[in-house]
Each structure stands twice: as structure tokens, then as C-alpha cells.
Design goal:
The chain has 15 helices and two strands. It has two domains: about 5-195, Cytochrome c-like domain (Cytochrome Bc1 Complex, Chain D, domain 2, Orthogonal Bundle), CATH 1.10.760.10; about 205-340, Cytochrome c-like domain (Cytochrome Bc1 Complex, Chain D, domain 2, Orthogonal Bundle), CATH 1.10.760.10. Helix 3 (about 65-75) packs across helix 8, helix 5 (about 140-145) packs across helix 8 and helix 10 (about 215-225) crosses helix 14. It is about 35% helix and about 0% strand. The chain has about 350 residues and is mainly α. Strands 1-2 form a two-stranded antiparallel ribbon. It is globular and about 65 Å long.
Length: about 350
């Protein structure tokens, strides 16, 4: 979930979270009268596209049907924010492959954040979260988004209180966790739902299986994408069109945003950001960590020019000499990575 937090920043309120957890776990231990009897939950097994490995699922938070159902509802729940208006889905729109339409997303204060909200497509495979890799799990990422004052600014004690007062939510928590609502269970449920956001049935995928066609332009773009001439697939390779590595893609002449450096304090990491998946990329504009490029044509032009020559720019980013037709071919190929069935499965209910 990058609700803005996967995007805006890398400040994880660890101490605050730890304090909140101890307080709320203590509260949860006090059983309320007339608690609902939990229904029997069942494990949830992901249906994976051909060629996709099983994503890493924490043993401490296995997928289950009721847990994912609860997580889906919480993902769209505005009452997790201090103004009751901002939910995870405010910055991760299902119809935009769980990305935002804004250059940088807006939190409860109405002010724009620092970074763009990227897609949650196949987020279970990310390994590290935020543009600078500041969270190691989806659960850790979720608490940052909820509590960060520039994003949802949620007040955990108040959230737990209204969840306990809401009969339908209490039922869902008992069904999923056999306990009343706690902070840890909120995070586990949201993360579980996000791990089900698996996309791998684009027209390109069906073409690879011999079940669909790509037109001449799209096929030319595909060959360019995987060629040594462009080296696109060196960073956007594999089944998920990303290596999950951190790179300086030449998007800043001077480092207004230090990127990965904010986590490692290594000079060699200045200006490096996590390489996003290109799956559903035709729906996830604007692009780059700061949302500075409005269209895929702008992105191709950026790489065709060889970037902005930043100090740590990746050596493979250099002028490409693409013609206008070749640039269009690349854009057309990238648009073939849109997975319509994914959008239909996760449309708003």
C-alpha cells in the first residue's frame, strides 16, 4: 500500500508504533461482553499467472479468506484518517491499477506530498517499500501511512475505539483473528489484501502464450524494449518488469530528493529510487518518483535524451537516437502491458 506513504517519505514512526502496539494489545486483552462467535476462517491460496513464482508470505501473517475480506474493507475506509476522508484507496485508485492521478498525492491537510504514489500492482513481490526502501514489510509500510501527519494522520486509540463500537467490524475482526480489533490486526489485514493484487494477464502475457496478438508496432516496440540498444529490460526485467533495485535514472540534475541515501547514508545512493514495475504502466501516469513526467511519451523522450546527467546516473542511461516511430512503438508496447482482467477483478464495489 503505498497510500501516500509508499511514495511521500521514508519516515517510519517505529517508536510511536511500538508504544501504540503495547497499549492497544493491552486494551484488546479486555474481553467485551457478548463478543461475537467467530466463523470458521479458511486459508486463501493465490491463483498465480503462468511463470509467476509464489510471493513471499510472512509466516506470522498467512493469507486467509476472512482476513483479506477485512483488509479490503479497511483499504477503502476513510475513518482510518483523522478527517474521515482519506483512505488507502484515495491515493491508490483501483481503476488506475492502484496508483494516483496526481503528481504528488494529497493527505488530510490538503497539501501535496513529496513523492508520487506508484501502483500497487504485484506489490507482494516488492521486497522493500517506499521509493527509498524505508520499510521491509507491507505491515510496516501501513502503519507509516496511517499515522503520518502529512498522510492519513490517524489516531490509533480513536481508530480502535470506533472499530470496537462498530458491530460489523467487530464481527469481521473476530472472524479473521478471533479477537477484537487491534493495531497489529489492522496492519495484517490491509497487508493481506494488498498481497492479493496479482496482475499477469495482459495482452502481452497472452501473446507470449499464443492466446492473443500484438500488432506490428507493438511487436517492434517489444523487440526494442528487450534489445541491447535501449537496455530497458536491464532494470525492468523478469516476470514483473522490475529488478526491484535502486537506480538513479537521471531524473534530477541536482538532488532535491536524496532517495535511497536517506536510508543508507552512502554517497553512491544519492538520487537512487526503487525501480517500479511496468505492469499496467499505461494507467499509472504521471511518472517517476516526483510525478514530473505526465505521459509515457515524456518518459521515452527522457531516456532517449540520455537523462539529465545527474552525478550518480546509471551508466546504461545514455542517448538512444530513437526515431519518432520507434518512440511510438515503445509506447504502444508498454500499453500492451495493461491487464484488463485485473482492473475488473478489483473494481470498486
Amino acid at each position: 500500500m503505498m497510500f501516500k506513504s509508499l511514495c511521500h517519505h521514508d519516515r517510519l514512526p517505529y517508536l510511536q508504533a511500538v508504544v501504540s502496539w503495547f497499549v492497544l494489545l493491552s486494551l484488546a486483552a479486555c474481553k467485551l461482553p457478548n463478543e461475537p462467535s467467530p466463523e470458521r476462517d479458511a486459508p486463501l491460496f493465490l491463483s498465480l499467472p503462468p511463470g509467476f513464482p509464489a510471493p513471499p508470505i510472512p509466516t506470522s501473517n498467512p493469507l486467509s479468506v476472512k482476513k483479506v475480506e477485512l483488509g479490503r474493507r479497511l483499504f477503502f475506509e476513510g475513518r482510518l484518517s483523522s478527517n474521515g476522508q482519506i483512505s488507502c484507496s484515495s491515493c491508490h485508485l483501483p481503476e488506475r491499477a492502484f496508483s494516483d492521478t496526481l503528481q504528488t498525492s494529497v493527505g488530510v491537510s490538503g497539501a501535496a506530498g513529496l513523492r508520487n504514489a506508484p501502483s500497487l500492482t504485484n506489490v507482494a513481490y516488492n521486497g522493500l517499500y517506499f521509493w527509498s526502501g524505508g520499510a521491509q514489510t507491507l505491515e510496516a509500510q501501513a502503519i507509516s501511512a496511517i499515522e503520518n501527519e502529512d498522510e492519513m494522520n490517524g489516531h490509533i486509540a480513536e481508530i480502535i475505539a470506533w472499530l470496537n463500537a462498530d458491530e460489523s467490524y467487530r464481527r469481521l475482526f473476530y472472524d479473521a483473528f478471533q479477537s477484537p480489533p487491534t493495531l497489529l490486526h489492522i496492519l495484517d489485514a490491509i497487508a493481506s489484501f494488498e498481497r492479493t493484487l496479482i496482475s499477469g494477464d495482459s495482452r502481452y502475457d497472452r501473446f507470449q502464450r499464443g492466446a492473443a496478438t500484438l500488432n506490428d508496432s507493438e511487436q517492434r516496440g517489444m523487440r526494442l524494449f528487450f534489445s541491447e540498444r535501449t537496455n530497458c529490460s536491464q532494470c525492468h526485467g523478469g516476470f514483473n518488469f522490475t529488478t526491484n533495485a535502486f537506480h538513479d535514472n537521471g531524473s534530477q540534475r541536482t538532488y532535491l530528493d536524496l532517495g535511497r541515501y536517506s536510508m543508507t547514508f552512502l554517497d553512491s545512493d544519492k538520487g537512487k529510487f526503487k525501480t517500479p514495475t511496468l505492469r499496467n504502466v499505461g494507467l499509472t501516469a504521471p511518472y517517476f518518483h516526483d510525478g514530473s513526467l505526465p505521459t509515457l511519451h515524456d518518459v521515452i523522450d527522457h531516456y532517449n535524451r540520455g537523462g539529465l546527467k545527474s552525478p550518480n546516473q546509471h551508466p546504461l542511461i545514455k542517448p538512444l537516437g530513437l526515431t519518432e516511430q520507434e518512440k511510438q512503438d515503445l509506447v504502444n508496447f508498454l500499453n500492451s502491458l495493461t491487464d484488463e482482467s485485473f482492473l475488473q477483478t478489483h473494481r470498486r464495489r
